[in-house]
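Justification of resources, computational component.

The compute hours requested in this renewal are based largely on the per-chain cost of generating structure records like the one below. Each record pairs the submitted sequence with a full structure-token output. That output is archived, and it is also reused by downstream analysis tasks.
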Amino acid sequence: MAEYVINQYRGVFKRAVELYELEKFKDSFLLFETVVQNDQANYQACYYLGEQLYYGKGCPKNVKRAFQLFMTAASNKITDAAYMVGMCYLEGNGINQDSTQAVAWFTEAAKYAHPLSQYYLGLAYMKGEGITKDIPRAAQWLVHSAKAGVIEAQRDGGLCYEMLGKFKGAAKLFLAGAENGDPLCQEKIADYYAEGKGILQCTELSVHYIQLAAEQNNPHAQLKLANRYSLGDGVRLDKKVAFNWYQKAANSEDPASMNALAECYHLGDGCLKNDALAISWWQKAANSGNTPAMIHLAENLTEPSDKNIVQDLVTAKYWWSRAAEAGDAYAMYRLGDCLEHGIGVSVINLEDAFKWYRLASQNGNEEASEATKRFSRSITGKVKIKKVA
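The structure output for this chain reads:
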């Protein structure tokens, strides 16, 4: 009798799978539920029912019950279920988030060549989440996954190989990912073709892939493509096309692109000269941490090149400070100059001025070297801090 019941529900399970594959999820859900309630040894049915509950396919979402079903199936060697248990632990769905448990279940499924489990296991080793960081082992698992066609693994596997200095392997993975449409892989392989790194140098292919990445709204690729058009590097020189790509990248809030767009407006490259817009974009880029933009902003607020720009020495000094603290030697020199001569500050501070001159000099700024020598000769006996008149 028991064997008859099992055989009966095998048929129901088969029909449920057929309905699932036809995306008739409401019908498949009812049949999987029936099988699970009546044939407790059908662990595949547990997985399918859990999957429908997890994603809300043909039924209300219930991630807690889905996790329980996945665990039942995974504990009985259903590889897809082991992967889903790993995902539940990774994301904290249906169970408390636990990266260590996630790694354990991804490891279990990866043993049976489950591509997505191999990817997430490799990613865990790459990031050191739930397990000790191990880039060679990360690369090993990511390559397995990449060979199965997982695009994210092609990308991250390439990054791991790059970290290990294995540029031929990185180029191979980036090229595979690029052909599969991944914009980061397209950007990376474009760089590899440009430099001849791990692959034969080819400007034409470099431009081809950077164009593909730019068209997918990769702001770094858009900036690189803009630079090519601005310089005529591998493409015809076209300042207007360059400006359009700078603008697209800047609108994606890429700080370096904001700075480049500001320079276009400042110089009138590919657009009408507009220093007010230049200042606006430099402000945005500087606020996003772009050091060159901080310097441009400080320079233009110190000595405005347009009558519509108001000189603001206090704000200029602020940006010299920010750029100096970010490690720019020229900004260190200019900050020292502000502190020595009372530009944008309420007090002259010779001690701090000397400190910044010396730092700038140590970082290769020649003007600061001269200022440091001058200070060394003349600072003795001077009042080190005094109010600006």
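The CA atoms of residues 26 and 58 lie 4 Å apart. Residues 312-372 form a domain with the Serine Threonine Protein Phosphatase 5, Tetratricopeptide repeat fold (CATH 1.25.40.10).
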